[in-house]
Amino acid sequence: MDINQLLVAAIFIATILALIFTEKRPSFIFSCAMLLLLATQQINITEIAHNLTNQGLLTLILLLLVSSAVDKTSLIKRLGRKLFSNSLAMSYWRLFGLTFTSSALLNNTAIVASLIGPVSQNQNHPASKLLIPLSYSAILGGTVTLIGTSTNLIVDSFLVEHGHPGFNFWDFTLYGLVAGLSCGLLMFLLMPLLPDINIKKSQFQAYFIEAKVSADSELVDKSVEDNQLRNLPELFLVEIIREGELITPVTPEIIIRANDKLIFSGNIEKVDSLSHIKGLTLFAETDGLLRDNLTQVIVSNRAQVIGQTIKALGFRALFDAAVVAIRRDGEQLSGKLGEIKLQAGDFLLLATGPDFVKRHNITKNFFILSEQKIPTRLTKLQEIVILGGFLLTIVLAATSTLNLATGLVFFMALLVATGVTSNAEIKRNLPLNIVIVIVGALSLATALENSGVLQTITQEAFPHLGETSPFLALVIIYIATLVLTELVTNNAAAALMFPFAYGLVEVLGVPLMPFALAVAFAASASFISPYGYQTNLLAFNAANYKVKHFFQFGILISILYSSIVLTLLKVTYDL
User: Cβ neighbours of residue 220 under 8 Å, at least 6 residues apart?
Assistant: First the structure.
């Protein structure tokens, strides 16, 4: 290899190692990779700009923006409440059917987030018997169509970049349906392997302390700051309930009034510090009004807040919300709430202010689980516009009547015209992190090809493949992508492995399509680890699972899924 090839290879390897061994977001890592490629003159600005206008990328952006509007409808949540019966088998198949079908057309992370509540709150069966199947059903459903998961569209963007017309809407359907339904049956048979975890309904209530201010209290007519209520040991004033009205977040200037109810959070063992305040009466009741005024979120695995403390972040000012409680793997965290470093998958209970839903940084850091994330209810006409318009767009694309990207542009315009969404909301929901990952990966692939690294690796690492079955090369690419998706993320795995799949195709002189499909299906096959896919992360935290539960249940699912996909690819493409 010459110096340019060594530089590109080093940047590629460093990118993979950074994705596996650091906690930096993929968008940050791919940004650094692009900058290094620019600095070493392996790519230029024109090539990056060309990657930004990739049709597959534009389609993905439009689809994600439209999905945020579709998520506003209450259809999935209404159906979710009707899923469960006294029969665990019936409940499972209803859940699988709804999740698998809806995930073929809608964002699977949003589907799982909408159904976690109904599954967790059902009174018929332990949630831990159903939450991992819920996540896996969403993953399997996403493999049925082109738009079922962002991974498919990312691979599509690479195909278009290499002069291929890209996937058709139904190219995934045969493989996704056969593998998905087969794995659905296997999950049903393996349900006895799932743990029976008792999810305590009061796990968040333990953090709350409610106290009423009497008329003769020393706190009356003084501000929060003057009363030193912000300096209590390991206790934090997060809400004031006054004449049925909720005041949150609580600022230092607010004046305390008689009959105010003060809501504290923090270390319950420090409650005795409140008993020394004259005229402050404690209550044992910690349920009721509070539950209706709190928003439940999970820290995203790509959140900017990861590794930072609530205090250092200036959380209240940043999000117009106060952190009331944190749960990590079902265990209470010790120490001061403000000094806890946030991690991906942390479950936060937030007391939110009026500007919370308007902040642009919310969706970039959190998955919102509470149904209160929609501030206003849609009218019947708006729901019809959303669901009818979306289905019409999909039908036109599926029948090749109208290009999918073109249809989504017109549908987005309709959503704005009918008031379902706004320019500000579109800007807030712009998936910038995914854009950076894809453009960075495309740029890295461009450098690998331009420098000749791909040609060198494929010729030297696989010198005898031309004399053996192309199916062996397909299996190698599939397994490499499968391993990578469990170590990093599905999107990053697809983006990193496609260039090598393309290089092998060039050497072997075989059709590109089966290799592209192999990369897409393998990148979605995150059944062994809770960290490789966002829906797994949601389920992992909702039921207090351990990593071993995903491995024990998912390893057989992964084997069956992979065997079916590879066998069908071999048969349909005569490899």
Answer: 213, 256, 257, 258, 279
Beta bridge partners, 299, equal 366
pLDDT tens across 108-140, in order? 877 887 788 778 767 788 889 999 999 999 999
Provide the 10 A C-beta neighbour count for residue 197.
Answer: 17
Q: How far apart are the C-alpha atoms of 266 and 365, rounded to whole Å? A: 23
Whose tokens are 């209520």? That residue is 229
Specify whether the CB–CB gap between 79 and 453 falls below 8 A.
no
Q: ω before 514 within 30° of 0 (cis)?
A: no
Q: Which helix (H) or strand (E) holds 463?
A: none
Place of tokens 């992979």: 562
* C-alpha dist (Å) from residue 284 to 207, 508, 560: 12, 72, 52
pLDDT score of 207: 45
DSSP 3-state percent helix, strand, coil across the chain (nearest 5): 60, 10, 35
**Segment 428-477, tens digit of pLDDT:** 778 888 788 878 877 887 888 788 877 777 666 655 555 668 898 899 99
Distance between CA atoms of 238 and 247, rounded to whole angstroms? 9
Contact (CB, 8 A) for 188 and 130: no
Q: Which string of b and e fits 419-450 if b means at least 16 CB within 10 Å?
A: ebbeeebbebbbbebbbbbbbbbbbbbbbbbe
Residue 414, amino acid: L
How far is Cα 485 from Cα 16, in angstroms, rounded to an integer?
A: 11
Longest dimension (CA), the chain: 92
Q: What is the DSSP string of 265-317?
A: EE-GGGGGGTTTSTTEEEES---SHHHHT-EEEEE-TT-TTTT-BHHHHTHHH
Q: Which of 101, 103, 85 is nearest to 149 (CA)?
A: 103
Q: In what order do the strands lie in the sheet with 295-299?
A: 321-327, 347-352, 295-299, 366-368
CB 142 within 8 A of CB 101: no
Token reading at 259 = 């009959």
> Measured between alpha carbons, how far is 115 from 93 in angstroms, rounded to an integer?
14
Quote the Cα angle for 57-63-68, to 5°.
130
Q: Over 60: is that where the pLDDT of 226 sits?
A: yes
Contacts of 540 (CB under 8 A, 6+ apart): 345, 530, 550
Which structure tokens are listed for 452? 């000749």
Per DSSP, the three-state class of 255 is strand
pLDDT attached to residue 269: 47
As to burial, measured by CB atoms within 10 angstroms (0-12 exposed, 13-18 middle, 19+ buried), residue 46 is exposed
Least confident of 237-246, 267-276, 562-571: 267-276
Q: For the whole model, what pTM was predicted?
A: 0.67
**Nearest CA among 501, 419, 524, 548 for reference residue 183:** 524
Q: Give residues with Cβ within 8 angstroms of 240, minimum separation 6.
A: 246, 247, 248, 250, 254, 256, 260, 261, 262, 263
Give the list of residues 6+ apart from residue 33 with CB closer than 8 angstroms, or none: 11, 12, 14, 15, 440, 443, 444
Within 10 Å of residue 521's Cβ, how many Cβ atoms?
28
Alpha helices in 452-546 (DSSP H): 453-461, 470-487, 490-508, 513-524, 534-542
